Amino acid sequence: MALFLLGRRLFKRRGDIHRAATAIQPFVLCSSMASGRQHVNGVDLYYEQTGRGKHAVLLLPGALGSTRTDFGPQLKALNKEHFTVVGWDPRGYGRSRPPDRDFPSDFFERDAKDAVGLMKALGFGKFSLLGWSDGGITALIAAARNPDLINKMVVWGSNAFVSQHDLELYDAVRDVSKWSARMRQPMEEVYGAEVFAKTWEGWVDGIARFAKRPEGSICMELLPLITCPTLIIHGEKDPMVPSFHPQYLLKHIKGSRLHLMPEGKHNLHLRYAEEFNKLVEDFLEG
Description:
Blueprint: H1 2-13, E1 34-40, E2 43-50, E3 55-60, H2 67-70, H3 72-77, E4 83-88, H4 107-121, E5 127-132, H5 134-145, E6 150-156, H6 164-172, H7 181-191, H8 193-208, E7 230-235, H9 244-252, E8 257-261, H10 268-271, H11 273-285
């Protein structure tokens, strides 16, 4: 979610206001939506669940994101006869607070353990992963660590390492007080101004630490362990994720495939929800 907002900021810098992604609109929960909290790994994780299909799917949100801010069109429109769709707020994000979010060196690994633990606690023995941005990184780790549990995986806007280019981008947007009020508003509505600013700064520091690792690795060494069918989607106009990131995933995840969306930006699953949902459904059912 936060990286989506950053993408909008970059387009404003380039004078591309009219083509920038529109603000996320709230979605109306359908009558078949269930929600609750599940105690997993010492914390209460908020989740929403819809559909009654045999194929379980977990939606993994981006940095500071939540199921409602990041996946409205998917919760609403993915085929409820074929899929059981679960959205969640990772610990310290959205409605999975307390605790406050922190960013230790293993925060992606921790999120992956929480995600798998949640699905197990909800009674799903095998499931697929849809991961956006940071959620895609979490999905990659979860799939590598739990090959027997993961059916299929879709990731977009994600990276297995932090390059110097990425680091410079994150540093440039560290101070949210320099963002426009319109850009801050969605996150401030979830967290409050002070907590949002503090949490976002913590995320920047947390992601920056990976740049100090060999090759800037977040999970490069885990990619060869992924055995599930994997679809990588990349928006060719994504200002946040250079094309070398999906190309690297394609090269190092055995049997994976890459789908390019020429007009897609970082929030392609929101901006082009119908096309995205069809693409995902075809892949998961294939």
